[in-house]
Amino acid sequence: MSQTAHIPSHRKPRRSASKLAFRAGVAGGVFSTIAVAGAAAPANAEPVTEKTLEMPTLGSLDADLASAVSASAEASQQEALDQSLAAQESAALQKAAKDAKKAKAEADRKAEAEKAEKARAEAQERASRTATRTSLSARSSSSDSSSSVATGSAAAIVAFAKAQIGDAYISGGTGPNSWDCSGLVQAAYAQAGIDLPRISSDQSSRGTSVSLSNLQPGDILYWGSRSGSYHVAIYVGGGKYVGAQNPSTGVVERDLDWDPPSGAVRIL
Question: For the chain, what are the domain ranges?
């Protein structure tokens, strides 16, 4: 035995012819199958391609981030602007409410001042009218103490005027059962044979002007100016007069202080 007989051989074992033939048959069958499949495929069939997933680049990520940051900044600016406008509107409303409250307080103050002034004026007017009535009453009493009873023509005038008390008032009335103020005075003086004008302003323009503190029965009282009077009546003594007042009252007898006359004239 040689010295190398115990060392295993490194040569590859030879393949048998049968195995090689088997492998060749298998390979030939596979290639044949592929060829048949290729021939059976449609001529216009699109080749199968592989799709590749594109990954975002670093540049596109930066652009998206910048766009998001810009949108966030714009949203923040809009929110700040909205808050500023809301604050301005609230301040304007508060100022308007304050101004309205101040204006109302000023209007109320003026109204109260006007009311107080009107009350003072009315009080002064009442006091003045009271003083006038008191003065007239005192004057009438003084006058009546010397000549409180009508005599002669004055008596006829007074008696006629009193006899018509209760008759109706009609504008333009001259009797016998309805009168206006100047119609009654004209008819009363006719009883004494005195012809007076028909109109009150003409009647008060006749005779002699006398003071209200020196009246005598039969004197003609007038309201308004002497040459432009709008109402007349007859003084009957005792601080009273008779006149055709208005459609509501007719011919009545009243105290001088009920409606103080402006003046008086004496015709007798």
Answer: 80-268
The CA-based dihedral angle spanning residues 184, 188, 193, 197, taken in that order and rounded to the nearest 10 degrees = -30
Question: Going residue by residue through the chain (268 aa), what tens digit of pLDDT does each one get?
Answer: 445 455 455 455 555 545 544 454 544 554 444 444 444 444 454 554 445 555 556 566 667 777 877 788 888 888 888 888 888 888 888 888 888 888 888 888 788 778 777 777 777 766 666 555 555 555 545 444 444 566 789 999 999 999 999 999 999 999 999 999 999 999 999 999 999 999 999 999 999 999 999 999 999 999 999 999 999 999 999 999 999 999 999 999 999 999 999 999 999 8
**Cβ count near 240 (within 10 Å):** 18
Range 80-268 has CATH code 3.90.1720.10 = yes
